[in-house]
Design brief:
This protein is an alpha/beta fold and about 350 residues long. It has twelve helices and 13 strands.
């Protein structure tokens, strides 16, 4: 476990979506966050106290979390310098970037001298198996998306809480850097060698016989040319009984690929079901989760209702309006003693 409390790094970021790791920790582990570190040119805030590095250490921060994502996941020179300042102040440093902290000699030397630790969150476990596709016991729900960063992790965590509120055993299975920092465990799927992606998820979400659910955080999109391979392996390894489609209706183009429009929701849903059926022939869609954070409430609720009518599935913004419609529908669909609803995508 990475020592808390945390100081969340925003730096000079001008990309709101790229702050998703810091934002996720501020939402789901707020009690473990003492503040945020940002420069004047950063126009975003997490609503936490703005603290300098030494000031944050004095307030009890034990770890600076570099909770930003940039193209390629590289450690910019300015990021290295500020990490060195945090180490000098006596803090550990955690990062989910692809470029490892341990591969920057100055950080390694400084950490050793200061007696603090560098945490590279995007390190997959050793000796991951190759997926075998054999049927395994248990019920699994996987969130999928029309694009990257559309709310799959938020939806998965809120659904987990909704299941538990109904007395149903439910566990969150993290597959990305933010989810791993929140949960304290998981597999950083985008750092796994391609041959082992499905096997990594089989290991992360093994068979269970307690009538509970594994709620698996989705990654990427089958329609995103950069990341469709990760999404495919995840669908096969998860063997989901149920999928929830996540979508940001305010986004007209793929993240990072302005020459690619987002797919139609119905088309994306159908494709995910088709791909999932390789290892889970009876998979079904159980809901649509919209990220309506950029819409007013009236328009957001109207869009949820229209989407539900169009796709014949429950639709909500789980974080804003709650996950009850999807949770209730899912548990009805898979209740052993109840007639199954006839509507299916």
């Amino acid at each position: 476990m990475i020592p808390a409390p945390y100081l969340l790094y925003l730096g000079r970021s001008d990309d709101e979506v790229g702050l998703k790791t810091s934002r996720g920790l501020a939402v789901f582990r707020r009690d473990d966050c003492v503040g945020e570190f940002r420069h004047d040119e950063c126009r975003f805030t997490l609503g936490l106290p703005r603290l300098g590095l030494a000031e944050a250490r004095g307030a009890g921060a034990r770890t600076l979390v570099l909770g930003i994502a940039n193209p390629g996941g590289r450690l910019a020179p300015s990021l290295v310098e500020e990490a060195l300042e945090a180490i000098a102040a006596g803090m550990n440093v955690a990062s989910g970037l692809h470029q490892r902290l341990r591969d920057e000699p100055r950080l390694v030397q400084a950490a050793e001298e200061a007696g603090v630790t560098l945490f590279d969150v995007r390190d997959p476990p050793a000796d991951l198996p190759v997926g075998n596709g054999l049927p395994r016991a248990g019920k699994r729900l996987l969130t999928v998306g029309t694009d990257c960063s559309v709310g799959k992790m938020y939806t998965t965590l809120v659904l987990r809480d909704a299941f538990r509120a109904r007395g149903v055993a439910a566990d969150f299975r993290a597959t990305g850097q933010t989810g791993i920092l929140i949960a304290g465990e998981g597999v950083p799927l985008d750092a796994v060698v391609a041959d082992f992606i499905s096997g990594a998820i089989e290991a992360l979400s093994p068979a269970r016989d307690d009538d509970g659910w594994d709620l698996i955080e989705g990654q990427g999109s089958l329609f995103h040319p950069s990341f469709a391979g990760v999404s495919t392996g995840l669908l096969h390894g998860a063997q989901p009984a149920a999928i929830v489609m996540c979508h940001d209706p305010s986004r007209p183009r793929m993240r990072g690929l302005p020459h690619y429009p987002l797919p139609d929701l119905a088309e994306c849903l159908a494709m995910n079901l088709q791909v999932a059926r390789l290892t889970s022939p009876d998979v079904r869609a159980v809901g649509v989760a919209l990220n309506t954070s950029k819409m007013d409430e009236v328009a957001a609720r109207r869009l949820c209702d229209e989407t539900a009518d169009r796709l014949a599935l429950p639709c909500t913004d789980p974080f804003r309006f709650g996950a009850d419609p999807i949770a209730d529908w899912t548990l009805r669909c898979f209740a052993p003693s109840s007639p199954k609803p006839t509507v299916s995508a």
